[in-house]
Structures are given as C-alpha cells and as structure tokens.
Design brief:
By secondary structure, the protein is mainly α. The protein contains 5 helices and no strands. The chain has one domain: Endonuclease III, domain 1. The longest helix has 19 residues. The protein is globular, with a radius of gyration of 12 Å. The two termini are 17 Å apart.
Length: 95
C-alpha cells in the first residue's frame, strides 16, 4: 500500500495523526492511524468531492473504532482532515 500510494500514504497518515479524530495521538505513536490509512486510500478512487472523502473517512473510523468511539460525522476533526485529504488526493491524482 505504501509503495502504490507513495507520499500520499504518509501525508494522509500525518493528517489523521494531526487532527486525531478518536484521540489516540499520544505524541510518539505517529503510525497509530496506519490501519485506517490502509483502508481509506483504496476508496479514494471512488470520490468526486470533499464530501465523498468526508463520508469515507467517517465510515472507516466507525468500522475500526465503532460508532460511539468514532463519534459524529459532523465533528470538526473529520471535516478538517477530510478537506486536507481531498486536497492531497487531487494533487496525487494529477501526478
């Protein structure tokens, strides 16, 4: 996965770590969102908008953490992370 998506993998991992939607960023565990990145990236081929990315990101967090731990889709960390992931995807898909 890391090879196929090159720098996008690391960028999305950093975005999720920075916005920390489920509160697992303890400063030193920079690979904590690695599994989620691995399931989000392949789905980005389906997206046509930032809203699509937002839906995918939240769905994957619900899948990995459960609905109560993932929290509401409209929480700011999901919105902010999805915006940045969308922009990163646009850059990546133009390469």
């Amino acid at each position: 996965m890391k090879i196929a998506y090159k720098h996008l993998y690391e960028e999305v991992e950093e975005i999720l770590f920075r916005y920390d939607p489920v509160g697992i960023n303890f400063g030193e565990n920079t690979d904590e969102y690695d599994p989620e990145v691995g399931t989000i990236l392949p789905r980005l081929k389906e997206v046509c908008s930032e809203a699509d990315v937002h839906g995918i990101v939240h769905e994957e967090f619900v899948r990995w953490f459960g609905a109560s731990d993932a929290g509401a889709k409209d929480r700011q960390p999901y919105k902010d992370a999805s915006r940045e992931i969308w922009l990163a995807w646009l850059r990546f898909s133009r390469e």
